[in-house]
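Please annotate the following for my students:
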Amino acid sequence: MANKKISILGAAAAITKGMTVTFKEMMSPTVTEFYPEEPPKFEERYRGSHVLQRDENGMEKCVACFLCAAACPADCIYIEAAENTETTRISGGERYAKVYNIDYNRCIFCGYCVEACPTDAITHGHGFEQASYNTSTLIKRKEDMLAPVPPGAKAPAVASEEVAAH
């Protein structure tokens, strides 16, 4: 008999606790996002589209060390390295990423590439509008991900023979 009363009281307490939470939520104001008209508000740690960062002089931070590609569990990062020369100085290191592609068909936005980068060259931005009906548009190239040149800095100079080759 005593066990029955205790179980009934326990069940009543659980229902009361649940209903308290429900009524509290019912009385709180509704938060509405007006997404197309206003930009959405993201948390600081939101993992959106990747951004290849530049340093304060406008040079690319990526030194083509391939650590991001090695850390990627989805194997969606493709890099081709090239050497910096006297006439062509793209990054602060000896090498730079001539080709840097991320296949968003395969990317799982885990953040391992960001954690693996020793120069903080790759980060997650807040871009999220990536949907496409054509999968070939989901392969982002270096030019698509590169951060703009900071104000007051000059873009890296590319030698004239390299420009003519492209």
The longest strand covers residues 95-103.
